């Protein structure tokens, strides 16, 4: 997905499902990517999403930040959320 409108529409429809299905609860956890050996770039902060339980991982969210503002959000399956270094820090309900 690219662009604010496309991501926004996806998230709005996802929220309808989550509100109407208690078992679809979403979990977000602070994490860091773990580049493979010899990868030229350092690890990046990210958020790992799970749905149903914190261990049912579904996506990795990468952020671009400039002047303390988010300029891009990438919801992706690569890098796989299972390969991230998770912090076990979750937002408070």
Low-confidence stretches: none
Strand order of the largest sheet: 4-3-2-1-5
Radius of gyration: 14 Å
Morphology call: globular
Overall number of strands: 5
Helix content bin: 10-25%
Distance between the termini: 28 Å
Query: What's the quaternary structure here?
Result: single chain
Number of helices: 1
Q: What order do the SSEs take from the amino end to the carboxyl end, as H and E?
A: HEEEEE
Quick one: biggest sheet? Answer: 5 strands, antiparallel
Mean pLDDT equals 85
Number of domains: 1
Question: What is the strand content?
Answer: 35-45%
Structural class by SSE content:
alpha+beta
Write the layout of secondary structure elements.
Layout: H1 4-20, E1 26-32, E2 45-51, E3 57-66, E4 69-76, E5 85-86
Antiparallel strand pairs: 1-2, 1-5, 2-3, 3-4
How would you explain this protein's 3D organization?
A hairpin with a 5-residue loop joins strand 2 and strand 3 (57-66). This protein has 93 residues and is α+β, with helices and mostly antiparallel strands. The chain contains one helix and five strands. 8% of the residues are buried. It has one domain (4-86). The two termini are 28 Å apart. It has a five-stranded antiparallel sheet, with no helix packed on it.
């Amino acid at each position: 997905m690219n662009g604010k409108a496309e991501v926004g529409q996806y998230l709005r429809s996802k929220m309808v499902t989550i509100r109407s299905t208690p078992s679809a609860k979403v979990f977000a956890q602070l994490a860091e990517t773990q580049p493979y050996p010899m990868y030229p770039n350092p690890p990046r902060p990210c958020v790992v999403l799970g749905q149903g339980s914190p261990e049912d991982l579904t996506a990795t969210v990468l952020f671009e930040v400039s002047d303390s503002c988010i300029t891009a959000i990438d919801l992706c399956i690569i890098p796989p959320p299972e390969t991230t270094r998770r912090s076990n820090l979750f937002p408070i309900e």
